[in-house]
Amino acid sequence: AQSVTQPDIHITVSEGASLELRCNYSYGATPYLFWYVQSPGQGLQLLLKYFSGDTLVQGIKGFEAEFKRSQSSFNLRKPSVHWSDAAEYFCAVGWGSGGSNYKLTFGKGTLLTVNP
Amino acid sequence: DTAVSQTPKYLVTQMGNDKSIKCEQNLGHDTMYWYKQDSKKFLKIMFSYNNKELIINETVPNRFSPKSPDKAHLNLHINSLELGDSAVYFCASGTGIGAFFGQGTRLTVV
Prior knowledge:
The structure holds two protein chains of two kinds. Chain A is an all-beta fold. Chain A has strands at about 5, 10-15, 20, 25, 30-40, 45-50, 55-60, 65-70, 75-80, 85-95, 105, 110-115. In chain A, the strands form three sheets. In chain A, strands 2, 5, 6, 10, 11 and 12 form a six-stranded mixed β-sheet that branches. Chain A has a four-stranded antiparallel β-sheet with strand order 3-9-8-7, with no helix packed on it. Chain A has a two-stranded antiparallel sheet with strand order 1-4. In chain A, a hairpin with a 5-residue loop joins strand 5 and strand 6 (about 45-50). The mean pLDDT of chain A is about 90. Chain B is built from no helices and eleven strands. In chain B, the strands form two sheets. In chain B, strands 2, 4, 5, 6, 9, 10 and 11 form a seven-stranded mixed β-sheet that branches. In chain B, strand 9 (about 85-95) and strand 10 form a beta hairpin. The interface of A and B includes residues 38, 43 and 102 of A.
């Protein structure tokens, strides 16, 4: 069955420090992978996605993620964290039999706290 | 312009009531979804519609009935609300892979 694991429930970093949020997936075929961010009381915003091609993908707000098939991972990174990055981050895998049957399976999220 | 909009943003109601959440998207997508986020922030798909046709129904109780009058709208009607229905409900739309989400509707059943 498809699953997404985010091993870190809560991460705290200092402003200006680098960030890496981990995501591992289990899926039998080539995955479609996503990172979403949810600020307090807000909806989900798509940060970036991987479908195929270059395994290093760039997203909004200075985030990037690297797909590593051998490790079944899609870790999210940012070189220098800003206080406004404090939020909940969700990794997701898109899957289905095709066309409109695709759906997202989400990880349980990683809460990011940024210290001044 | 808001791409995916839901109303209301907050909904507080008593057990046993019937309520609806409305969703509209102006992205021109064929597929729309409802996702539920529980108190532990876990997100799970409930339904998907494509051009007004139900595609995915993830073993959701039949008290929940989605309705799609056209491909830009997907409403969620919930009958006989229970305490356990308290959650944040997200509408989303997409071209098939991935989705753009609305701001969510926080439903509290008391």
